[in-house]
Automatic annotation (TrEMBL):
Keywords: NADP, Oxidoreductase. SUPFAM superfamilies: NAD(P)-linked oxidoreductase (SSF51430). This is Aldo/keto reductase. It holds the Pfam family Aldo_ket_red. It comes from Croceitalea rosinachiae. PANTHER family: 2,5-DIKETO-D-GLUCONIC ACID REDUCTASE (PTHR43827), NADP-DEPENDENT OXIDOREDUCTASE DOMAIN-CONTAINING PROTEIN (PTHR43827:SF3). Belongs to the aldo/keto reductase family. Residues 32-263 form the NADP-dependent oxidoreductase domain. InterPro entries: AKR (IPR020471), AKR5G (IPR044500), Aldo/ket_reductase_CS (IPR018170), NAD(P)_OxRdtase_dom_sf (IPR036812), NADP_OxRdtase_dom (IPR023210). The keyword NADP applies.
């Protein structure tokens, strides 16, 4: 098991860059004051990893929240993603420049291919490799790539993706995909860890919440980290942002980790990477 110490702890990517294993997701956080506040509250309470994307339409607010915080830019791990309509070689280079301008930052720590758009993601990846070689970002990766997408990408890639950000929760563990990523030194990362709120209805989580004296959200986020999976729960509420990060004073037993693994149903709450039309 990878070592989990505190809110500012990191997992090392295969190029040596240290990625904080806990961060703030800002999907559906409204641009402007809502997202600025969320970013600042997170940074004030010790978060050092902020995850946005072009399609979230809040990069400007995220950048403002970062710039106006008291935390030095070099201490914050900032992530964005190239959207599907911008995929392709030249358009990815332009999309990256546009994201950087909206964020008003000099570089990104991690840039991801948001979805495996058929016929385009290889050209997109070539552009990402170029941006990486030009030191415009510290790491590159993908999101929503199944094993066959990764294998296809790796046939021509010069650089192995450093991260694969996937829908990940107890109903969608996909241990085979995690194992494949681990075998290639691709860091696995979770989105939608709360199953769009459905996690709060599960008896197994209610029981574990009682057993450990922790909230259901804290139980699932701790499970993510003990699985070696980076996690970025989203919230725009100050109390929730602070509570989500209060997961470093307990540890799930190996039996309880296995219990949660055993809930896997291959059930998605988001789009299917093999069948999406956007």
């Amino acid at each position: 098991m990878k070592e989990i110490t505190d809110l500012q702890g990191t997992f090392a990517l295969h190029n040596g860059v240290k990625m904080p294993y806990f961060g703030l997701g800002v999907y559906l956080s409204e641009d402007g004051q809502e997202v600025i506040n969320a970013v600042q509250w997170a940074l004030e309470s010790g978060y050092r990893h902020i995850d946005t994307a072009a399609i979230y339409n809040n990069e400007e607010g995220v950048g403002k929240g970062i710039r106006e915080s008291t935390v030095a830019r070099k201490d914050i791990f900032v992530v964005s993603k190239v959207w599907n309509t911008d995929q392709g070689y030249d358009s990815t280079l332009r999309a990256f420049d546009d994201s950087l301008k909206r964020l008003n930052l000099d570089y990104l720590d991690l840039y991801l291919v948001h979805w495996p758009v058929n016929g385009k993601y290889k050209d997109t990846w070539r552009a990402m490799e170029r941006l990486y070689k030009e030191k415009k970002l510290r790491a590159i990766g993908v999101s929503n790539f199944m094993q066959h997408h990764l294998e296809d990408l790796l046939e021509n890639a010069e650089i192995v993706p450093m991260v694969n950000q996937m829908e990940f929760h107890p109903f969608l563990v996909q241990q085979d995909l995690i194992d494949f990523c681990n075998s290639k030194n691709i860091q696995y990362e979770a989105w939608s860890p709360m199953m769009q709120g459905k996690i709060f209805d599960l008896d197994e989580f209610k029981a574990l919440s009682k057993k450990y004296g922790k909230s259901i959200a804290q139980i699932v986020l701790r499970w993510d980290l003990q699985k070696g999976v980076v996690t970025i729960p989203k919230s725009s509420k100050k109390e929730r942002i602070i509570a989500n990060a209060d997961i470093f004073d307990f540890e799930l037993s190996s039996d309880d980790v296995a219990l949660l693994d055993g809930l896997h149903k291959d059930k998605r709450f988001g789009p299917d990477p093999d069948n999406f039309d956007f």
